[in-house]
Amino acid sequence: MKLTVLVDNNTYIDQYYLGEPAVCYYIEDGETRLLLDTGYSDIFIRNAEALGIDLTQVSVITFSHGHNDHTRGLQYWSGEIGTNVHIVAHPDTFKERKCGELSIGSPLSEAGLRENFRLTLSSEPMKISDHITFLGEIPSLNDFEPRKSFGTLVDGPACSEDFVADDTALVYNNGNGLFIITGCSHSGICNIIEYAKSVCNEKRIIGVIGGFHLFEVSEQLRQTIAYFQMNHIEELYPCHCVSFAAKAEIHRHIPIHEVGVGLVIDVKYQPKIRTVGGVIQKVTLEDLPDIIDLQKKAFTEVALWMNNFDLPPLHQTIDELRNEYEKSIILKYLSDEGVIVGSVRAHMDKDHICHVGKLIVHPDYQNQGIGYALMCEIEKYVPHCDKYLLFTGEETPNTKYLYEKVGYVVVDKQEMAGLAMFIMEKKNKAML
């Protein structure tokens, strides 16, 4: 990932770009070019031109929240720059906002944006590029970052105190840790980081850039610094809505970087290299908690791509799995270190059809043949069936490709729980 600061309060000496109290980051991840926020005016366009950045290549624009110092610049985006752009934001982002009589929200409405862009409003996390996730609505996970109201949120005829529920962030997973990219952190920078760790199933934090909405040397700031230290966060880029006093206090404990227009941060993708010898065995009753944990890790990756966290495997309970264990064959793939990194299960019905399901592989061990090995092995445990049957989502073509490699073919397509699913089967040649 390569991040370039297009808009910030600060500019560097002898670098003649334009600054304003606002935020816009240009981000490259693989083939994807995207923006987080668009600042207050058109200077993100002017600075991009001065920096030699081609904004016509941008395919995604995300917003950290709806305040006008993060959204107002979008009105200067023209068809000459690009019309085939996907905007991703929280459902509250483009609602009217006021502070007294002053309008502080986006000048562009949801209806207006839908006329010119592809618009996705989501309070759930969703992947927007190969390694970057939009976090959606941030839950409160600690007691030292209380939600503070900021003016009034106008939703049709209704007005309410605005606690900036739409405040969100992006997280980049480089394979060895997370880099957090935030706008203002109204939801609390530590809440954001903790939620990103949960969403990505990764505890290591490489760095953080953005506004932390910290202005005074306070108990909240002291606990925030302690949290940074506890998580061993060494690369800190506080900016925008962080006062000099707050930056100085953070710097006393953890050296921080100066942020300004033109800053480039390059975080290399470093996929984990795993050597897998491993063995396949039947699951025991004592393995079931590990199977549930692995299942949630694997299906979280699927849920992020599909932007759907209602997938049944994410919500299966340990009691439900115990019941399934009594009626099914469940296999596990053990790594050289003795860790369960893959699993599959199957059962045969009264019509001699073997139902295969919940093929899962730990995200760090995928694309190494584990899924293929499990699919071949499970057939050995049900040798007397007439055929093997499974279903897989239309939105997960890699899984469908794996099943085809093992010998399955699509025989039907159905909707299950609102999802388009392929029904695939494989004849048992031993019974022909």
Automatic annotation (TrEMBL):
Residue intervals of the N-acetyltransferase domain: 278-429
Record-linked InterPro entries: Acyl_CoA_acyltransferase, DHPS-like_MBL-fold, GNAT_dom, Metallo-B-lactamas, Metallo-beta-lactamase_dom, RibonucZ/Hydroxyglut_hydro
Pfam families associated with the record: Acetyltransf_10, Lactamase_B
Superkingdom in the source lineage: Bacteria
CDD domains named among the record's database cross-references: DHPS-like_MBL-fold, NAT_SF
Protein name: Metal-dependent hydrolase (Beta-lactamase superfamily II)/ribosomal protein S18 acetylase RimI-like enzyme
Organism of origin: Parabacteroides faecis
